UniProtKB/TrEMBL annotation:
BP GO terms, sorted: protein import into nucleus
InterPro entries with a match to the protein in the record: ARM-like, ARM-type_fold, Exportin-1/Importin-b-like, Importin-beta_N, Importin_beta-like_NTR, TPR_TNPO3_IPO13_2nd
PANTHER family per UniProt: TRANSPORTIN 3 AND IMPORTIN 13, TRANSPORTIN-3
Originating organism: Meloidogyne enterolobii (Root-knot nematode worm)
Protein name: Importin N-terminal domain-containing protein
Domain of life the protein comes from: Eukaryota
Domain Importin N-terminal: 27-93
Pfam family, one: Xpo1
GO MF terms held by the record: small GTPase binding
Transmembrane segments: none
GO cellular component: cytoplasm
């Protein structure tokens, strides 16, 4: 593309968002070509600084972000600082210039600024600089920028499309880790005095920001364990009437916190966080039952995800020391409470727990295995019996079960899960158990489901 004018870009954006479908397609093609051009860098920056329209600014912000992701090599190194300063200025001024909701534009600018800093390996100390700029209390605009940037930055650090070396990633992880106390304090202050116009939105944004911050593998767990904000997040999941968005954010936050716990022997600096997370999850039972009564599928998915993550985080401890400390078997019991609910999609979320448990037990020496088998056999039996219930075909259906249906796919994955754990019970003992249930079944769909499960391991019996 030669001689691209600023006005031609505005015209194309207007056509893209206009009512005429015949012009939309042509505008899309033209704008896609524009984004690949070398001129897109300067023109997008000009559009953002002019701030004539929200549509044009959003397109320009997306363009800069994509250029930084895919065509950073086009940008001369002596332009890095100028672009950084321009993006910082835009973060501070774009809302004032446009005079309206600019959250989508802010997200793209934050992503672009993150991608720029992460890829310029010579730069240091950007995180504390941004905290100093936007972590100021009492300024609603700065709060919005702070929450957006520190939610997006960790996500970009682990964005697979961003081509950086592991040394640079670790360097930034350590830079973030050093600012954890400051970030937690700011988030706690924002939560304790949220924006009066939309307090629930502010709380949710703070928890989402914390969830992203916990993506950092170097996040100091001993500091996190003593954060009042983490305890508040756990409290959200033990309550019955938390808004869905906040519940989602709190779940994501704890899932990411569990990822900070070493699988295997837990080092001393992680013990306190591990204990807090374990006890927090074990106290969500009543809230889970409330979600069951309300048929709140979103919250049920959150709890199931949390219970599965809890078991995976402590799986080695559960397998090595069942019933003791971090091997508390109530985690498995909570997963099995989920299995009592009618949604087989929730059951499937536990399959990896059973697979990993079976992998550990399979590698045990015979004396250890015999002892552990006694501890886990009742859990495995209950798991398989629950799969028999969930594999039942609708008895009112007049059609054969389609192999491409969701239930058919679940049934095949259920068979795989049964095969994973059969050796813990023993094929003969499992067959005997299922035959007892088969003999007391009163409907064809019950019988069919049990026989289907039996077919997954019957060939193992000699």
């Amino acid at each position: 593309m030669d001689n691209i004018s600023l006005d031609s870009v505005y015209e194309a954006v207007n056509a893209l968002n206009g009512p005429d479908p015949s012009r939309n397609g042509a505008a899309i093609k033209w704008l896609e070509q524009f984004q690949k051009s070398i001129d897109a860098w300067t023109i997008a920056d000009r559009i953002l600084n002019e701030a004539r329209s929200s549509d044009a600014c959003l397109f320009a912000a997306q363009t800069l972000r994509n250029k930084l992701l895919y065509q950073m090599h086009e940008l001369p190194s002596d332009s890095y600082v100028a672009l950084r300063d321009s993006l910082l200025s835009l973060l501070s001024n774009i809302e004032t210039k446009l005079g309206r909701n600019v959250s989508s534009i802010l997200v793209q600018i934050c992503a672009a600024l993150s991608d720029l800093y992460i890829q310029v390996v010579e730069w240091r100390g950007f995180i504390p600089q941004l905290i100093a700029l936007f972590g100021v209390q009492g300024n609603t605009r700065n709060q919005q920028i702070f929450l957006n940037f520190f939610r997006i930055f960790p996500e970009e650090l682990y964005n697979r499309r961003l081509k950086i070396g592991e040394n640079r990633r670790q360097e930034i992880e350590l830079e973030m880790a050093a600012e954890t106390v400051q970030v937690l304090n700011i988030l706690s202050q924002l939560c304790s005095s949220p924006d009066a116009s939309s307090p629930s939105v502010t709380l949710t944004n703070c928890v989402n920001c914390l969830a992203s911050w916990l993506l950092n593998k170097q996040c100091p767990t001993e500091i996190l364990a003593h954060s009042p904000l983490l305890h508040s997040v756990i409290g959200c999941l033990t309550q019955n009437s938390v808004a869905s968005d906040l519940h989602d954010a709190a779940t994501e936050c704890l899932v990411n916190a569990f990822q900070l716990i070493n699988d295997g022997d837990i080092p001393p600096q992680q013990i306190e966080l591990a204990r807090i997370l374990q006890q927090g999850v074990l106290h969500t039972g009543e809230a889970f039952r409330s979600a069951v009564r309300d048929e709140d599928s979103d919250k049920l998915i959150n709890y199931t995800r949390l219970y599965a993550e809890h078991c995976e985080a402590f799986l080695t401890q559960i397998a090595k020391h069942p019933g003791d400390g971090f091997g508390d078997l109530r985690g498995l019991e909570m997963l099995q409470i989920v299995n009592e609910y009618h949604d087989y999609n929730l059951v499937e979320m536990s399959f990896n727990v059973w697979y990993r448990l079976s992998e550990y037990l399979y590698q045990c020496d015979e004396p250890d295995f015999d002892e552990l088998r006694i501890a886990f056999k009742p859990f495995v039996e209950k798991h398989i019996l629950s799969l028999c219930r969930h594999c039942r075909i609708d008895s009112d259906s007049q059609e054969m079960l389609s192999e491409r249906s969701e239930l058919a796919e679940f049934r095949y994955r259920a068979q795989e899960s049964v095969r994973d754990v059969t050796f813990i019970i023993g094929s003969v003992d499992l067959l005997r158990l299922l035959m007892e249930h088969l003999n007391t079944s009163t409907s064809w769909d019950q019988m069919e489901a049990i026989l289907f499960i039996i077919s997954s391991f019957i060939n193992n019996i000699v």
